[in-house]
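Recap from last week: sequence in, structure out.
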Amino acid sequence: MKVAIVHYWLVGMRGGEKVVEALCEMYPGADIYTHVYVPEMVSETIRKHHVATTFINRLPRAQRMYKAYLPLMPMALEQLDLRPYDLIISSESGPAKGVIAPPGALHVCYCHTPMRYIWNMFHDYQQSAGFLTRLAIPPLANYLRLWDVSSAARVDSFVANSATVAARIRRYYGNDSTIIHPPIDTKAFSPVPCSEVADYYLMAGELVSYKRPDLAVRAFNELKLNLVVIGGGELLPEVCRLAGPTVSVLGPQPFAILKHHYARCRALIFPGEEDFGMVPVEAMASGRPVVAFGRGGATETVANDLTGVFFHEQTVGAIADAVKRLSTMEFDSDAIVAHAAHFNREQFVRKMRAHIDALLAQRDLAGQNLRDQSSFRRQWAAT
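Predicted structure tokens:
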């Protein structure tokens, strides 16, 4: 069986690329198709596979400004020749699912989320854009929405990474989906003895507006409690400017440093609404509780009062109250680690393989029924 994996762009190793990595391990002979490819920014597991790019990769400064070519990506996807493949798995968050699959092939879309910038976060992106971009966004977004909805019909089965994303798939595409949480290497993290837990909280991840890192920094300025911030992104300068004397902004850090702080912080602060959110699971795999906004993927990964606490308004006061509430509670580190293990890499591989195998079996059965019916009609005509 020939397998193709289609991913929007390979320019780093975030959540979507971790899914691609797991799919590569499931299908060692699979070919990968993507719009833009920066080999040195992805894992060796991905680099071992044949990676083909669309014409977007050859456009000026595409490796850094790839999002500027978003309007061209539907056309680029439709030019990919996937006729040799029996199974196509698209990894969707940017445009990926719109490939034209050959008749008889199975197309499964693992959806991290329908494209945020044209659907649920359209107005946020528009408001934060410059004047000329704000003028251009509405007609471009309208065109992309029409294509995005029509291309959903090319998918045989949607898999959502969370119930939150499953609801968006139903809302925007009118499709049902199977929920399979993304793979997290929980075994890469481990707790430390209570004596090694330090007197600070941690916020980790990309510093972008929808994750609301500004709220956490302002809350800890008011609380006068220690907060360590790890991550890069467009809001890094603003976070540095907002940081008071108890907030340490470390910027992007290697995995070893992040792992060290996961295990030794008093708790992780997670102020944004995510589609799924791998960071809280990584913190819990390190034995530490989470203070999370009670919407989105965190509601599926964090167990209230067992592995953390929720706040229900994205305000400085709500975060501060949740931190105070957590400080009066005791948490069992072993129980937190055990809870995080439900989201490990093995569950993803097992569930994805079972889902795809069932779909292939249904396809083969349907094909056999058609062949049987055709044979019967020929025999009947001959008599």
